């Protein structure tokens, strides 16, 4: 049987995300954030860690640059160059028509064709010049 105070106590329940430094005798709380709403259960989502799909580094697929001078830029693969004994270079064109090249290790695919499978950040991954800003 539920008491009259139980619904009020459930409303007071708060959820936190906590960063803990472990490894010693005691775990030390480094940082905590109060979360809105109910917590998400671990393992929720697609069963058995299934992938949504596999996107290859083919010419014409959308990529996002994660390293180097072009970090944050998004574009379509136009060309791939293999250099013997060295890294592979990918030539990319963004939606404004600007072309740039980067190492294959600095990019990952985010969509097939020219349509990304993920939502893009503000600016849609386009690098503006100083005049355009």
Automatic annotation (TrEMBL):
One of its GO terms (biological process) is translation. Keywords: Ribonucleoprotein, Ribosomal protein. It comes from Zea mays (Maize). GO terms for molecular function: structural constituent of ribosome. The keyword Nucleotide-binding does not apply. This is 40S ribosomal protein S4-3. GO terms for cellular component: ribosome. The lineage of its organism: Eukaryota, Viridiplantae, Streptophyta, Embryophyta, Tracheophyta. InterPro entries: KOW, Rib_uL2_dom2, Ribosomal_eS4, Ribosomal_eS4_C, Ribosomal_eS4_KOW.
